[in-house]
User: Fold this.
Amino acid sequence: MIPVRDFRQHLGSRRMASAWLFAAALAVALLPRPSAAAMFITIAPVGNDVVASTLGGTLNTSGLSFSGNEPASGPTLWPVFAEIVLGAPAGFDRYVAITGPSSWGPPTSPSNAASSLGPLVGVSSGQFLVVPTGYVSGAPLGPASATFANATIASLELTPGAYVYSWGSGGNADSLTVTIVPEPATGALLTLGVVVLAARRRTQLGNA
Assistant:
């Protein structure tokens, strides 16, 4: 049986983590986005693990150039190259010409997921989009996830924040946002800062 004090502390940590997840989602909602549909990937601490997940969506690859197909590969996380690929191990197609941040942290070795589900999808190096083999532009992609066991945002050397990748123009415009949620104990000021900066950016765009 879990002691009452320990249970209360555990419950408090869960509530705090949920609060930071909500705040991060609000920050992303305030960021300026293209008018086209977009996909979102969240990397967040969950218990003793770090979980990357997406609710799915669609991706318009019409404005990108096909860069090749890779054989079966598992989900990986590599901050120095801004790489997150989640979903069940499978072959994938790679498209080039997206624009966005090329790094989320210092040089480290890549981390492999302990478990994963869903279609393989992700970004790498601020220029590559990863989608399932044979993916048809605009086709729906279901939820996907990748769990990095016994890890923290700090141990993976991830820099919290919202990283937006965009491509195409006009009817072919699309985007994918990767949000790295900070640890509950260190996330308050950072999350507030992201919200304020995003709101200020939206105001500046509105006045332009």
